């Protein structure tokens, strides 16, 4: 038996406590020799108060994760890192100050992915409640990316998001793309939904790049560490 201990690179991740999807999806997208080491921060729901409170223990969690000597620490929650235009920069600075390690966030990965793909107009599909979905639209607009269409499912908790059938997410993406013919990409947002397995099929069907929150974190962390490898089957972004 071969055990992968991450001798090429170790990526530290800070994820919501209620998230059961991000780890298996990211592990599946990492090449041999690269592993993810995970610490959790308290978050199960979607209210403003809960999203803000996820950052309360950011420094101690970062220091604990740094004990395992990852090469990079990623704060991995879309709703929190896109809460406001300046939020991702603040999170990154706090992690780096606490851990002494380079850091990034899901929001950083999204912007890097859209820049690499040359996307300025997209459809956005999420499982979120309306206020979270609307904040993400505003965040994208603040960074020069227009949302041409899309929808949200009104799901409040990480546990419920993990139970959304992938087929329902695929139908949501298809409907959004059909209603916005000028879109340059489809963004399936949220780290807590089972979306990684949909990427390749939807790209072939829609003729558009498809990005997801877990995919952009895996891709961005790898590229930040100078690792060009990509595991096949996870879309155009991972091959770029």
Q: What topology emerges from the helices and strands here?
A:
Blueprint: E1 9-16, H1 22-29, E2 34-41, H2 48-53, H3 58-66, E3 72-75, H4 78-81, H5 87-99, E4 103-105, H6 106-117, E5 121-126, H7 130-142, E6 146-152, H8 158-162, H9 166-179, E7 185-188, H10 199-206, E8 210-212, H11 213-224, H12 235-238
Parallel strand pairs: 1-2, 1-3, 3-4, 5-6, 5-7, 7-8
Give a short summary of the structure:
The chain has helices spanning 22-29, 48-53, 58-66, 78-81, 87-99, 106-117, 130-142, 158-162, 166-179, 199-206, 213-224, 235-238, and strands spanning 9-16, 34-41, 72-75, 103-105, 121-126, 146-152, 185-188, 210-212. The protein is an alpha/beta fold and 240 residues long.
Description:
The protein is of the alpha/beta class. The chain has 2 domains: 9-108 and 215-238, Rossmann fold; 109-213, Rossmann fold. The protein contains 12 helices and 8 strands. α1 crosses α11, α3 packs across α5 and α6 (106-117) crosses α11.
């Amino acid at each position: 038996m071969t055990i992968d201990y991450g001798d090429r690179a170790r990526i530290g991740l800070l994820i919501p406590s209620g998230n059961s999807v991000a780890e298996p999806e990211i592990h599946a997208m990492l090449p041999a020799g690269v592993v993810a080491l995970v610490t959790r921060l308290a978050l199960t729901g979607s209210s403003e108060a809960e999203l803000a409170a996820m950052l309360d223990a950011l420094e101690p969690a970062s220091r604990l994760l740094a004990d395992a000597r990852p090469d990079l620490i990623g704060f991995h929650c879309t709703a929190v890192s896109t809460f406001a235009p300046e939020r991702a920069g603040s999170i990154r600075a706090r992690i780096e100050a606490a851990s002494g390690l380079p850091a990034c966030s899901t929001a950083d990965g999204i912007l890097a992915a859209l820049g690499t793909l040359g996307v300025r107009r997209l459809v956005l599909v999420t499982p979120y409640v309306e206020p979270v979905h609307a904040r993400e639209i505003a965040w994208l607009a603040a960074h020069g990316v227009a949302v041409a269409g899309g929808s949200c499912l009104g799901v409040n908790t990480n546990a419920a998001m993990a139970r959304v059938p992938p087929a329902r997410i695929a139908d949501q993406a298809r409907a959004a793309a059909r209603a916005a013919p000028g879109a340059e990409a489809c963004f399936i947002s949220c780290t807590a939904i089972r979306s990684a397995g949909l990427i390749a099929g939807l790209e072939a069907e829609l003729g558009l790049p498809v990005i997801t929150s877990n995919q952009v974190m895996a891709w961005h962390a790898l590229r930040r560490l100078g690792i060009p490898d990509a595991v096949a089957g996870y879309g155009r972004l991972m091959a770029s």
